[in-house]
Specification:
- With 138 residues, the chain is of the alpha+beta class.
- It is 29% helix and 41% strand.
- The protein has an eight-stranded antiparallel β-barrel with strand order 1-2-3-4-5-6-7-8.
- Strand 3 (58-65) and strand 4 (71-80) form a beta hairpin.
- The longest helix has 34 residues, at 2-35.
- The N and C termini lie far apart (70 Å).
């Protein structure tokens, strides 16, 4: 009898643990989904990138490579668990999906295609001068 009670207690503990973990996972995804929309900026020696994620699943990306002009890309994004993926306006998929980590005003995007690409963005508005001077890419 005590053995059955112990087994039932273990089963109940396992079910509760699974429930708590799934709730935390859903909560984390909801937090990412709420935190991602907004405007972000990344810059290194070779490029300057601004991206604006809207809550409705659309984005605008402004990218300048080297001394060139900003090019504007638009499309749609999705977030499943902590994986960000998307496509450009004509339905062309991004070259990779990205693992998303957000800590306050810092966004880390890590490519999932095995390239090792990691980019750290800071929450920052897209300047009007970038929006006005960008040429449409797609």
């Amino acid at each position: 009898m005590f053995r059955n009670i112990k087994l039932h207690s273990l089963a109940l503990a396992a079910l509760l643990s699974a429930f708590v973990l799934s709730t935390l996972s859903c909560s984390k995804e909801a937090n990412l989904r709420e935190s991602l929309p907004g405007e972000w900026h990344y810059s290194d020696a070779a490029s300057d990138v601004y991206i604006a994620f809207s809550a409705d699943g659309h984005y605008e990306l402004f990218q300048k490579i080297g001394e060139g002009r900003y090019r504007e890309y638009r499309g749609e994004w999705t977030l499943k668990k902590n994986i960000l993926s998307g496509n450009y306006g004509e339905g062309i998929a991004w070259g990779s999906s990205y693992r998303v980590e957000i800590d306050g005003d810092t966004l880390l995007l890590s490519a999932t295609n095995g390239s090792g690409e990691k980019n750290v963005y800071r929450r920052e508005s897209v300047p009007a001068s970038v929006r006005e001077s960008a040429e449409a890419a797609i």
